[in-house]
Amino acid sequence: MKTILIICFALCSSFGFSQYDYNVSEAHPYGQPHPDAPQQIKDYEPMIGLCNCKSTTRNQDGTWNASENITWEWKYIMNGTAVQDETLKPDGSHSGSIRQFIKDSSKWYVHWFSAKTPSPVFPVWEGYKKEDKIVLYKKQKAPNGADGYFRLTFYDMSKSGYKWIGEWIDITETVVFPTWKIECKR
Q: If phi over 0 gives left and psi between -120 and 50 gives alpha, with beta otherwise, what is residue 31?
């Protein structure tokens, strides 16, 4: 039996059936993009790794809270065909996302999860990279009942860091109300 497994491993590896070449490893602590994955897998490349960030949320009265320090870690998962991120916060309200690009729709789908608010069904944002920004949307009504979206935007992305903003917007994207912003530096 041991001989059969060794032969299978050798043959499978030589035919390119290795399942884990692009996962997190000692040589690649944040994984690598799989060469057969859609090229959009590299949209998040500037974020891959670990960043120290300042997160600021808006109060109900419209004022901004003091910033809190968080850590945001990004890596390639599923053998380099998807991206995972995780935020580590001082209050223990850690959260993260699994990000997959689906060729048929030419969109990113982002499944968000949180330690503070576990859910049997993950909220999903969808979007795309437009010029030098990644823009994601999820339908969400305003507190007054108006139809709109919660829009997430990554921008100013570089090897030294990136910025992120969460905003409620109306259907026409003319009313924009920022509720959360994050600035990250390596």
A: left
pLDDT in tens, 129-181: 999 999 999 999 998 999 999 999 999 999 999 999 999 999 999 999 999 99
Give CA–CA dist 147/170, Å, rounded: 6
Structure tokens at 115: 């330690």
CB count within 10 Å of CB 147 equals 10
CA angle in degrees (0–180, nearest 5) for 142-60-64: 115
- In 121-183, alpha helices (H): none
Structure tokens at 153: 């935007």
72-94 pLDDT, tens digit per residue, is: 999 999 999 999 999 999 888 89
Has domain 2-185 been given CATH number 2.40.128.20? Answer: yes
**Residue linked to tokens 């305003």:** 142
User: Please, are residues 135 and 128 in contact by the beta-carbon 8 Å criterion?
Assistant: yes
Q: Strand 107-114 and strand 133-139: pairing?
A: unpaired
List the domain boundaries for the chain.
2-185
